[in-house]
Structure formats: C-alpha cells, structure tokens
Amino acid sequence: xxxxxxxxxxxxxxxxxxxxxxxxxxxxxxxxxxxxxxxxxxxxxxxxxxxxxxxxxxxxxxxxxxxxxxxxxxxx
Length: 76
Hints:
Layout: E1 11-14, E2 18-26, E3 29-35, H1 45-59, H2 65-75
Antiparallel strand pairs: 1-2, 2-3
C-alpha cells in the first residue's frame, strides 16, 4: 500500500488518466473528487463488496430447467 499526504487542493494521478483530488477537509472528514475516464467504474468499498456478494449469490442459484420451461410455455 502506498501512503501519501495531501493538502486541500492537491491531487494524485493514477495510471496517467485518473486524478484524485482533495477538495475539502472538515471535522475529520475528507471530501475527494475523482476524475477518470467514463469506462472506469468507481464505487465506494462497502457498495462494491455488496455487489460482489450479490453476484456470488446469484451465481449459486440453481434453476430447475423443467419448471422454468413449463412456466415459459404457460405464459405464451
């Protein structure tokens, strides 16, 4: 892990195209801005973990193909 100190208004650059800038520091909270290409997804860590857990859960769902086929035919 790389540890850097930055002051309000300062930034870091990642991979030449992602800028993380310290916008404000108040009452123990740091407000940051992230400027990155649109094809890069940016998530808060707790949200990212939640998405991963839901994807794992969805991948573990087993479908009864016969039941799905029957339901599909009934809806037609």
